[in-house]
């Protein structure tokens, strides 16, 4: 029994991405980031798209794949403390709708950035590297895997 806990979930991190309006808020946030970058006078359109893609993927990597634990007190005896947010999402079940959304969204942003940069080699390498850094940790084969012991504790 959790006295003073206002939520009914054992770990609210598991269901937060399925909450009502979350995907729309996420898309609007990415759109607002792009508009802010476009409004900076000395950024060209290709630079704004590449920066949108790189900043988005950097934020996604940090918040979904690097930060571990939960800000909530959970009665799971410390199991969530060792998992990233991506590993906690939907209780670790693979191929749910929210996992598919957060896998497809950087791919769509990558296609947009590549198209608007006209496949310039410099921008293409930056965008591809940025995309791979967020897609590879999402693979089901890497669930709970710590390469070279990085982020083990």
Summarize the structure.
The chain crosses the membrane at residues 23-43, 101-119. Helix content is 51%, strand content 0%.
Would you write up a description of this structure?
The protein is built from five helices and no strands. By secondary structure, it is mostly helical. It has one domain. The chain is globular. The mean pLDDT is 87. It is found in: Membrane. Its main location: membrane. One of its GO terms (cellular component) is endoplasmic reticulum membrane.
How large a portion of the residues is in β-strands, by DSSP E? Answer: under 5%
Q: Determine the fraction of residues in helical runs and give it as a percent range.
A: 40-55%
Low-confidence stretches: none
Q: Structural class per helix/strand content? A: mainly alpha
Shape: globular
